[in-house]
Specification:
There is one protein chain. By secondary structure, this protein is mainly α. The protein folds into two domains: about 60 residues; about 210 residues, MetI-like (MetI-like fold, Orthogonal Bundle), CATH 1.10.3720. Helix 9 packs across helix 12 and helix 11 packs antiparallel against helix 14. The protein is globular and about 70 Å long.
């Protein structure tokens, strides 16, 4: 197992940061002559520091160091060239990797591109299915809108892993769908262990995260704007294009963000429904940490993914500065 003990300076930095936080807390208490309402956020700030900021700093530390704790950029080079470590070892032994036929490996890049493509397809399908569903549920004259919202929520009460495993009982060779096809006189079809099965599982699990922000954005719209547009002669389609859809864009952007980023990093769905025939970036990170036991490279891959998430959140902030589409319900 890899030694993951932090260097002494890192431990002292964390302890110093905690001490500074405590001193600042005491100073603020003395200046305010007691506890103000804003001070009740202190436990949450401390929680964020310990369980969010410090872990991110640790990931950054391992990403920019090697197994001996020395600064290096080899982890990021290994992301671009998956054969970098092997070629480096061969060079240290006096061999020429190029002469031996070892060239630059594009496995990591290909995995990231594949993950981005699958996440893009998942997001597009969720948007095409989720927007009409949200629009239908938010319709004022539709009395069962709240009931449908509840039906969308109920599957989310079940564990994510169980929902994915349930699809295996439907798609496997002896599953419900193939059993039904055989009973009707048709031959069995291969529904599992391919890209289509992985995409189906992703859409099923992430569809609510597209529906709810859009539903929230549409349901908060002032219906008088729609009535005014129709009074001015606009039809239902023109009203939707010029009024409803533009006002729902914050929810659309929020839904895209909430679906795309988890879809890129998912690892359980490809493993179960893809059967090892597909590998996404989340699988690569998990394999690097747990199988290859390379915590430094795994941290570098995680840091790259965090940068993508921050870029996505930055885009959301630009389009939806008030966070109007970000609420689930």
């Amino acid at each position: 197992m890899m030694d993951l003990h932090l260097p002494a300076w890192a431990i002292w930095v964390m302890l110093a940061g905690l001490a500074v936080f405590i001193v600042m807390f005491i100073i603020i208490l003395r200046r305010n002559h007691g506890v103000k309402r804003s001070m009740f956020s202190t436990p949450y700030a401390l929680w964020m520091i310990i369980f969010t900021i410090i872990p991110c700093l640790l990931v950054a530390y391992y990403a920019f160091t090697d197994a001996n704790g020395k600064f290096t950029l080899d982890n990021f080079i290994s992301f671009w060239d998956s054969n970098h470590e092997m070629n480096k070892e061969l060079a240290n032994l006096g061999f020429d990797p190029a002469a031996m036929g070892f060239t630059r490996g594009m496995v990591n890049i290909s995995t990231l591109v594949y993950s981005l493509w699958m996440a893009f397809l998942c997001t597009v399908i969720c948007l095409l299915i989720g927007y009409p569903a949200a629009l239908f549920m938010a319709e004022r004259d539709f009395k069962l809108g709240a009931t449908l919202v509840t039906l969308f929520i109920i599957p989310m009460w079940m564990n994510f892993l169980l929902r994915t495993i349930a699809w295996m009982s439907l798609l496997e060779d002896n599953g419900l769908i193939n059993t039904l096809l055989v009973s009707l006189g048709f031959s069995r079809v291969q529904l599992m262990y391919n890209n289509s099965a992985v995409l189906l599982g992703m859409v099923y699990n992430f569809l609510p995260f597209m529906v709810f922000p859009i539903y929230n954005s549409i349901s908060k719209q002032d219906y008088r704007l729609t009535e005014a547009a129709m009074d001015l002669g606009a039809g239902r389609m023109l009203t939707f294009i010029r009024v409803t859809f533009p006002l729902s864009l914050p929810g659309v952007v929020s839904g895209i963000t909430m679906v795309f980023m988890p879809a890129v990093t998912t690892f359980f769905i490809p493993r179960m429904l893809g059967g090892g025939n597909t590998e996404m970036f989340g699988d690569l990170i998990e394999r690097t940490f747990l199988t290859a036991n390379n915590w430094n490279l795994g941290s570098a891959l995680s840091l790259i993914m965090m940068v993508l998430i921050l870029l996505s959140l930055g885009l959301l902030r630009k389009v939806d500065p008030e966070g109007e589409g970000g609420s689930m319900i």
